[in-house]
């Protein structure tokens, strides 16, 4: 009986020692494989990094790792200090090497809620309620129609006159360069927008930070058109429609009370 017990204990000890040796062998496999191989210590993304992240945010989401030089990508980052004030130009995923080519100067980062304004045009921002921006479904890169409405009094000075109201679809397919909440932060990105890298206004998002139902829609237009739009925003009303590139334009004129029911 005692012999069997001692034999069982001996077998258990052998099994434990064998397991420890096997684990140690596996853990050192990478070191043995890299023995005699030239390596370099670089930064590898450990946690997802969003586009626009600062160097401090990036530092908290990467880790140092020794990688064989033959496996190094071009322009790998070996020192975070060399990035200066740059930010991530695109979203970075865990496992990828941190590359300087994926970084950009902060002032050049447009972000998902903005696109570059075409040469020769200027940007103009309109603050509008949700019902005047196609229910909040306006995305940077979309084109919109701009309706201008104005009330104008008729009659000579000092005499009681009547008020004439008119609405006109004055501008077609105007480029939207930015979509933001009324507090200036980038508008929330819907599922479709996130997949394509664009930002879509969403009035139903649970993470919405604004306190009212108004949005800042920035458009690109020449100076003459910008004057007319600003005049209407100051002394009348502005309404936007979502007008895709294949929308028809013929027949557009103006509407007043005499033409409404024609």
What does this structure look like?
The chain has 262 residues and is α+β, with helices and mostly antiparallel strands. The protein folds into two domains: 36-108, Antifreeze-like/N-acetylneuraminic acid synthase C-terminal domain (Type Iii Antifreeze Protein Isoform Hplc 12), CATH 3.90.1210; 122-245, no CATH class. Helices cover 21% and strands 27% of the residues. The protein is built from five helices and ten strands. The strands form three sheets. Strands 5, 6, 7, 8, 9 and 10 form a six-stranded antiparallel sheet that branches. A two-stranded antiparallel ribbon has the order 1-2. The longest helix has 26 residues, at 2-27. It is elongated, with a radius of gyration of 31 Å.
Summarize the structure.
This protein is an alpha+beta fold. Helix content is 21%, strand content 27%.
What order do the helices and strands come in, and which of them pair?
Blueprint: H1 2-27, H2 29-34, E1 39-45, H3 55-59, E2 62-68, E3 87-88, E4 103-104, E5 122-129, E6 143-153, E7 163-181, H4 191-196, E8 214-221, H5 223-235, E9 237-242, E10 254-255
Antiparallel strand pairs: 1-2, 3-4, 5-8, 6-7, 6-9, 7-8, 7-10
